Structure formats: structure tokens, C-alpha cells
């Protein structure tokens, strides 16, 4: 895993396909917001407990992710696990096809910083897009 101050898209990290995970820590909070874009599907995991499935609609509409569904500790580990389901070839939309997180993650309107970013890269033929079901 690579340490970065802010979240970066998969392509900037050198990951072309597969999955990417963003890990950081935070104190307490009531809600989390994604400002920017999230492509394609993801899971919000806090302290190894899956909280919610997320997609780009959550980021576009700035729908908050409620944190009251999990018991928060004094210090908490946030993992955002995102799946890249491929790209649509449309030259006018190439910049929209960046995968992973683009933008910021906020808890109680405070930007989270200090991420460890890693990937699961599948090089074998036969892996298909998996839709997360919670």
C-alpha cells in the first residue's frame, strides 16, 4: 500500500483495472460525504464491519452515509473498497472514466487526509464485474 495525503483515482496510482482500497483513520462522526466522483461501485467499511454499498449517485447527489449503524471507537479505521467495472469508449467522456475516488471524503464536514492506497489487480482472463450485495 502507498501512503498519500489525498485520495487519487486508480489511473494516477498506476492501476488500470481490478479493485482499489483507500484506508484512513478518523475520530468520531455522524455522517460521511463524498465530494466529487466515485467509480464504479464500493463498500464503506468501518473497523472491519461493512456499513454501506455506495456508487457514483451517492457522490453526485452528496447523499450522506450515516455512521450511526456501527459502534465507533475513539479512533476508527475507514476502508473504502471500490470496484472498477471497465470503461465505455467515448472520446468526449474519457476524463469521466477515471476509476476509484476523485475528490474528497468528509466526516462531519471535515476532510479526511492521510490515506494508504492499495489495489487488487486481476491479470487472469475470466474475472467479471461483481455487483456488491449487502
Explain this structure to me?
The protein is mainly beta. It has one domain: Galactose-binding domain-like (Jelly Rolls, Sandwich). The strands form two sheets. The protein has a six-stranded antiparallel β-sheet with strand order 1-10-2-7-4-5. It has a four-stranded antiparallel β-sheet with strand order 6-3-8-9. A hairpin with a 2-residue loop joins strand 8 and strand 9. The chain is globular. About 4% of the residues have low confidence.
Short description:
By secondary structure, this protein is mainly β. The protein is 4% helix and 46% strand.
Enumerate the strands of the largest sheet in spatial order, edge to edge or round the barrel.
Answer: 1-10-2-7-4-5
Alpha-beta classification: mainly beta
| Count of distinct strands | 10
The CATH superfamily is identified as Galactose-binding domain-like
The proportion of residues forming helix, as a percent range, comes to: under 10%
- How many DSSP H or I helices? 1
For the record, the CATH class is: Mainly Beta
- H/E element order: EEEEEHEEEEE
Organism: Dimorphilus gyrociliatus
InterPro entries: BetaGal1-like_ABD1
Protein name: Beta-galactosidase 1-like first all-beta domain-containing protein
Pfam families: BetaGal_ABD_1
